[in-house]
Design goal:
alpha+beta, 57% helix, Glutathione S-transferase Yfyf (Class Pi), Chain A, domain 2, 8 helices, Glutaredoxin, binds glutathione, 2 domains, globular, 4-stranded mixed beta sheet
């Protein structure tokens, strides 16, 4: 059976939601960072990791989402057809991988971003991370103005990709999303989806 290895609330939430939207059988296995179970399928020790039933393993959230969208065109999660629609999908996937996700690293792991391990130095790194996250949220906020979803072709894997990061921002950014109402609206639209709620309940339950 197709298997997703996930950590609750991590970026693996994006393919987890996508698999639920697709509606085909899959298994979701909860793992811990650094565990043998995770290292056995992904030597980088990172989630998401997807394993197909023939043993083929795919890592990297953007690649997994792209793969799932194109393996299941019937689910309509690719965000549209044609060269420009595909390019927009790649553009926003790269945005979430390289700009938004990366902006959270100093917030999650400030010790990796300074050789000064004092409390004050790490607090400064976290604050710099908050600014980076806010900068990326402003990009998303502008783009979402007048749109229900990120891509023109309707709800897509890219919205699923945004979801865990928007949740991190709500939790970790001082002021949450108060300056980003369209991002908040996207969050609320996705959070109201019964499939998203099912996945959140599963991840919360362990
Ligand atoms: N470039 C990878 C990054 C994956 C990643 O770092 N995931 C985080 C969770 S959101 C993780 O597994 N972190 C564990 C670690 O870095 O040790 C991707 O986009 O899939």
């Amino acid at each position: 059976m197709r298997t997703l290895f996930y950590v609750p609330g991590a970026c693996s939430l994006a393919p987890h939601i996508t698999l639920e939207w697709i509606g085909r059988p899959y298994e979701a296995i909860r793992v811990q960072y650094g565990s043998d179970k995770l290292l056995a399928v992904n030597p980088a020790g990172a989630v998401p990791t997807l394993r197909e039933d023939d043993g083929w393993i795919l890592t990297q959230a953007g690649a997994i989402l792209d793969y799932l969208a194109h393996q299941h065109p019937e689910a309509g999660l690719a965000g549209g057809d044609g060269a420009r629609a595909k390019a927009e999908g790649h553009r926003w996937s790269a945005f979430f991988t390289s700009d938004m996700h990366a902006a959270f690293w100093p917030v999650f792991m400030p010790d990796r971003y300074t050789t000064d391990q004092s409390k004050a130095a790490k607090a400064a790194v976290v604050e710099a991370g908050h600014r980076l996250v806010a900068k990326q949220l402003a990009v998303l906020e502008r783009h979402l103005d007048g749109r229900a979803y990120i891509l023109d072709g309707g709800r897509s894997v890219i919205d699923a990709y945004a979801f865990p990061m928007i949740r991190w921002a709500i939790k970790l950014l001082p002021g949450g999303l108060e300056s980003f109402p369209t991002v908040q609206a996207l969050h609320d639209r996705l959070a109201a989806d019964p499939n998203v709620q099912k996945v959140l309940a599963r991840e919360a339950g362990g």
